[in-house]
């Protein structure tokens, strides 16, 4: 039997930070609580990250990287093939977000809870920190949706886009109540299809000129 790889101090700090920040928020989680749980010390945080906020930033960047990468890949592929439709764009955006929770077991639930807590943190500074990681890709999707819906006013498309983000976050949070390891591929696919169909209809009916 192979011995599982040993986590580095940096990885332990990031893993514990995700869990603790997701449970208690940034202000409600002390750096000491993180270092004790990670069997590390403040000096290790300063060495690897520089500060508590820098640790949060690194955890957000790591958590968002797979979703951002997949969304960017899908959008690049769609745009290379021509003008994507609103439905194609919605699917390319929604599926990676749901996949974060529904098909990655316990790890997915921890990351999704963490991202949700940071994205809706009461502190504007913390929300802006999250946005710095998410906005570059999200801005491309918003621009692409505006091109795919030329008859709709840009502010109307932006309104629909914000509501799409909210619905995605809602379904992610609901999925967190499921026990790790009980994910069903058919259930996950059905949820994605239902949400995509609803959003396509909402954009089509709500944003007509």
Any idea what the radius of gyration is? Answer: 19 Å
- Quote the beta fraction: under 5%
Quaternary status: single chain
What's the end-to-end separation, in Å?
Answer: 63 Å
Overall geometry comes to: elongated
Reading the helices and strands in chain order gives HHHHHHHHH
Largest sheet: none
- How many strands in all? 0
Main structural class: mainly alpha
So how many helices? 9
Q: Mean of the pLDDT scores? A: 86
Q: What ranges have pLDDT less than 50 throughout 5 or more consecutive residues?
A: 179-183
Percent of residues in helical segments? over 70%
In brief:
With 209 residues, the protein is mostly helical. Helices cover 77% and strands 0% of the residues.
Describe the model.
The chain is 77% helix and 0% strand. The protein is built from nine helices and no strands. The chain has helices at residues 9-24, 31-37, 42-48, 52-80, 86-102, 105-119, 124-148, 154-175, 185-206. The longest helix has 29 residues, at 52-80. The relative contact order is 0.12.
Give structural attributes.
209 residues; mainly alpha; 0% strand
Task: Give the helices and strands, then pairings.
Layout: H1 9-24, H2 31-37, H3 42-48, H4 52-80, H5 86-102, H6 105-119, H7 124-148, H8 154-175, H9 185-206
Helix pairs in contact: 1-2, 1-4, 1-6, 4-5, 4-7, 5-6, 5-7, 5-8, 5-9, 6-8, 8-9
């Amino acid at each position: 039997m192979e011995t599982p790889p040993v986590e580095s101090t940096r990885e332990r700090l990031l893993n514990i930070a995700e869990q603790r920040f997701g449970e208690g928020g940034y202000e409600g989680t002390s750096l000491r609580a993180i270092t004790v749980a990670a069997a590390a010390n403040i000096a290790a945080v300063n060495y690897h990250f520089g500060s508590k906020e820098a640790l949060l930033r690194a955890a957000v960047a790591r958590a968002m990287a797979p979703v951002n990468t997949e969304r960017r890949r899908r959008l690049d592929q769609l745009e290379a093939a021509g003008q994507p439709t609103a439905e194609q764009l919605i699917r390319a955006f929604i599926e990676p977000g749901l996949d974060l929770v529904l098909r990655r077991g316990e790890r997915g639930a921890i990351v999704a809870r963490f991202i949700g807590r940071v994205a809706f943190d009461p502190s504007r500074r913390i929300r802006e920190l999250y946005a710095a990681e998410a906005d570059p890709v999200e801005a491309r999707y918003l621009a692409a949706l505006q091109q795919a819906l030329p008859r709709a006013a840009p502010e109307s498309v932006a309104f629909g886009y914000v509501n799409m983000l909210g619905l995605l976050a809602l379904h992610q949070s609901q999925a967190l109540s499921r026990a790790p390891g009980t994910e069903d591929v058919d259930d996950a696919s059905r949820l994605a299809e239902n949400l995509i169909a609803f959003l396509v209809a909402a954009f089509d009916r709500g944003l007509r000129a």
